[in-house]
Design goal:
By secondary structure, the chain is α/β, with parallel strands linked by helices. About 45% of the residues lie in helices and about 10% in strands. The strands form 2 sheets. It has a 6-stranded mixed beta sheet, sandwiched between helices.
């Protein structure tokens, strides 16, 4: 069962995420189904645009299925875990270069893999329910799916704040940071969907007919307070700045850093710094190498256990296992096409 519905509605190819019990978390079958649908829609002259949405309210996609990744890791099935990420990253590159308008309708949670599924497309329409985050450092992982390309390009070092602390961003803040390209109300999503499918207007015109214009919002001031220390060059200097700032916002950020995997924080900061001037493809190559290290480090299994399995939110981060130090990741495959990754 792929947990994805594929339809042609009017002029649109529609991809529906349909795994509500897991908040539409992506498994391998879902990624493969979406990739195949994009190929079919691109080859079909009757399809003028692609819409990705959830078949269920208040959720878009909570990320990749990290519970399954943990199971594979505990069974030492590292190559199977790597295959998921290879396939997911190939899909991301496919989305980035897609020849037809790619529209994500985001109404609810959009984290991790949901960011990868939406952020690399041209149009990202968020309702007032949309909530964006990349909380991977809390589970001993890294903000992948092109996170090292997206996050360091956000204004005012906000991407470093999001990637390191797992902070959640919504509404006008998300729009100001570029996470959404357009904003609308949940009540308008159906009429927007209908116009996208049946109108003869250009995709962008149809979207603008149902979306608002961003004005100044006071929440932006709170956002600035949250991100104020993340221009610092090291984790130590970031933490020192946060400690000295002594505001509610900086205390929240400092608390999140203290709870996250120390190894993941270091890996994440390195990826974000290197991603500033890199292409998406290069960022994904680095992320894959980081994934190979992460799935072989005990922090990942412990973090997923604490946050997603037992949900006690009290991970005990293991020290580095010296047996892992000698592992050399396999050569990263050619990312020039999705077929090379499958």
């Amino acid at each position: 069962m792929s947990h994805v519905t594929i339809e042609k509605i009017g002029r649109a190819g529609v991809i529906g995420l349909d795994r509500p019990k897991a908040l539409n978390a992506l498994d391998l079958g879902m990624v493969e189904t979406i990739a195949s649908a994009l190929d079919d829609f691109e080859a079909d002259p009757a399809v003028e645009l692609v819409i990705v949405r959830s078949n269920h309210d208040k959720m878009f996609c909570a990320g990749g299925d990290m519970r399954r990744i943990r199971e594979l890791v505990l069974e030492n099935h590292f190559e199977e875990a790597e295959h998921f990420f290879r396939t997911e990253y190939a899909l991301i590159l496919r989305i980035k270069s897609y020849s037809k308008p790619y529209v994500s309708l985001i109404d609810g949670i959009c984290m991790g893999g949901g960011i990868g599924l939406s952020m690399h497309g041209k149009f990202r329409i968020a309702s007032e329910n949309a909530l964006f985050a990349m909380p991977e450092t809390a589970i001993g992982f890294i903000p992948d799916v092109g996170g090292s390309h997206i996050l360091p390009r956000m204004p005012h070092h906000a991407g470093y704040w999001m990637g390191l602390t797992g902070a959640r961003v919504k509404n006008f803040d998300a729009h100001a940071l570029g996470l959404s390209t357009h904003m609308t109300q949940e009540a308008s999503l159906h009429s927007l969907f209908e116009e996208l499918c049946y109108s003869r207007a250009a995709t962008e015109t149809a979207i603008e007919n149902h979306c608002g214009v961003l004005g100044f919002q006071e929440s932006i001031l709170g956002l600035a307070a949250s991100t104020s220390c993340f221009y610092q060059p090291t984790l130590c200097s970031i933490e020192d700045c946060l400690t000295k700032s002594k505001s509610t916002k900086t205390n929240e950020a400092l608390r999140a850093l203290k709870l996250a995997s120390p190894r993941s924080l270091q890996e994440t900061l390195s990826l974000l710094k290197r991603g500033v001037g890199s292409t998406l493809k290069t960022c994904l190559m680095r992320e894959f190498e980081a994934v190979q290290r992460a799935i072989r480090h005990p922090d990942l299994a412990e973090g997923v256990r604490a946050v997603l399995v037992d949900k006690d939110h009290t991970p005990v981060w293991p020290s580095a296992d010296p047996r892992l130090a000698g592992h050399k990741p396999s050569k990263f495959p050619d990312l020039s096409s999705s077929q090379a990754m499958l």
